Structures are given as structure tokens and as C-alpha cells.
Amino acid sequence: MNPTPLFTKTFDFVTWLLPLTNHFPRSQRFIVTKRLLDAALDFQECVLEANTARMPARLEKLNEADAALDKVRIYLRLALKWQWINSGQYQHAAAMVTEIGRLLGGWQRISRQSAVSDQAA
Question: Coil, helix or strand for 119?
């Protein structure tokens, strides 16, 4: 089985993000840093679970993944505001998250269309 671009991009993002958070302030490791990593890993898990789920559970998992990705965006913005990451790191992360979001949105759209056509049949 060849991994889809969404799985590959998500894996690349998580492997880039994990070492980056080691440089966040120690005082925030179990607060904001944990929330950021949890959101990123929750996203990855939801995508993996959606891949094996059938409708309507697939749409539910994709929506959960979308919510987790929104959390990642918020925590990255906070990390930039608090200067835990520099603007170049933020731009790189934002580009990766935008691409992941685009791929997720396409999968959601196709899944919704499939669910509608299955109901009509």
C-alpha cells in the first residue's frame, strides 16, 4: 500500500514538530507544548482511523481531524506570539498545515459526495 499524500505530509509535519517543541520553555512543557503535540498526534490518529472507517464514521473522524488541525494552528500562532518559534519556523509550519488542511478538505468533500450518492441509491 502506497501512503497517500495526506499521510506523508502529516508524518513529515509531526516528525518536524516533535523536536521543535523540545526548545519551548520548560515551564510550558506540560501545558501549551503538550496541548500542541496532543492536537498534532490526535490529528494523525483521526486520519489513520478515517482511512479504515466506513461511512458515516469516516466523516465523523475527518471532522475530528479538522478540529484537531484547527487546534494545531492556534497553538502554533501562540508559539510565534510568545517567540518560542521564529517567523521562518512559523511560515514553514503554516505552509505544511495549509497543505495538510487542503488535502483533508478534499477528502472530506469526496466523502460527503459519496455519502450523498450512497443515500440517493
Answer: helix
